[in-house]
Amino acid sequence: MKNNIVILLVLGAYFLLSGVAYIVWNHLAGNEFEATGSLGLLLSAVLAAFIAFFLNMVNRSQGGILLPEDMPTADIDDADPNIGHFAPWSWWPLVLGFSVGLAFLGLAVGFWIIFLAIPFVLVAITGWTYEYYRGNFGH
Question: What pTM was computed for the model?
Fold first, then answer.
């Protein structure tokens, strides 16, 4: 986790430096304040700093233990293998992906397509949520 914190702090410093350089360069070129690029770079620095701060607080609350990912002598199987339960046969993520893709197509092509995509998105989310409540896996 320490490596992630350092990487995010370096990334935040890079975005901060890039944002300040972008603002100064834009000002020296005689242009008005350009909000999209300037705020995008500065807010990216804030986001990286927030994530680094959060990871630092989590690391401190866990007693500062080293994760297997941080130890150079660790093997790949030293980490906890139980990350979560994922259904390898589930088709709902694919349906949800196509539905959200259709919604984003509506943003690009025509807003009316979003109204066609919303029911598909809702059905896909509901199906993925409740796939273990019916059939062989019903409670």
Answer: 0.56
